[in-house]
Amino acid sequence: MIINLKYKLLFLVGILMISAGGIMINNVEVSYENNNKNYKESNNVEARKNSELSLLNMNVGEAGVIRIEVFDGKTYDELVNQINKSLGGILAGHADIIVSRSLELGVDPYVAAAIMIHETGNGTSRIANNCYNFGGQKGSGCGAYKAYSSVNDGLVGMIDNLYKNYYSRGLTTIDTIAPRYAEGSEWPSKIHSFVNKIKNA
Predict the structure, then answer these.
(1) How far is CA 170 from CA 2, 16, 160, in A?
(2) What b/e string do you get for 7-24 counting C-beta neighbours within 10 Å, with b at 16 or more?
(3) Is 11:68 a contact under the CB 8 Å cutoff?
(4) Per residue in 163-178, pLDDT tens?
(5) Diameter of the chain measured on Cα atoms
(6) Quick one: which of 77, 80, 94, 130 is 20 to 30 A from 108 by CA?
(7) CA–CA separation, 30 vs 9, rounded Å?
(8) Distance CA 169, CA 92 (A)
(9) Rounded to an integer, what distance in angstroms lies between the CA atom of residue 28 and that of residue 121?
């Protein structure tokens, strides 16, 4: 049973483009509650989701509609859709959880997804399918690897591990993560390659 988790993302958007008149608004703080139904924000602006893969649009009085770019020049839904194109096996269709948890913790969602793809043979490995372990984390419950109770728990656990053991220690790029994450010298080049494939899918 896949648990329907809720994640609140707090975005500090540097520049929001308003479609009518090209007005710029700086430092608008927006929070997004990922329960596939509700959007919330903290600047008295109403948000709406038109479809599962729609753009996150916000109405600002009569000024027009704001386009909110949350990462890499993409709206939340554009980013989810972009990453979903590359996910296979048991990972397929789960970019929403990857993106929401990554942005919540300040982790690069492309890197998180690329590591998952590499470590699981794109969602086809035994530990991914039997133990919901998507990052090769060591532990117990699945031989020498950590077992999780669901797909969502495994996705969140992998990103939490990436944040706790790497990002929070200043290891925020593929090349600085690599020596601690993997023994193989080819690991960083493979992750870079997967990131490029995800971005250009």
Answers:
(1) 33, 29, 15
(2) bebebebeebebeeeeee
(3) yes
(4) 999 999 999 999 999 9
(5) 60
(6) 130
(7) 8
(8) 30
(9) 40
CA distances from 111 to 41, 116, 158, 187 (A): 27, 9, 12, 12
Contact 121, 89 (CB under 8 A): yes
Instruction: Quote the DSSP letter at residue 168.
Output: G
Beta bridge partners of 17: 24, 67
Identity of the residue numbered 8: K
Tell me which of 61 and 110 has the higher pLDDT: 110
The answer to whether 132 and 126 are in contact (CB under 8 A) is no
DSSP 63-127: TEEEE---BTTB-HHHHHHHHHTT--GGGTT-HHHHHHHHHHHT--HHHHHHHHHHHHTTTTSHH
Domains belonging to the chain, first-starting first, are: 90-199 (1.10.530.10)
CA distance 23 to 65: 10
Token output for 32: 């997004």
Structure tokens at 4: 């329907």
pLDDT higher at 33 or 75: 75
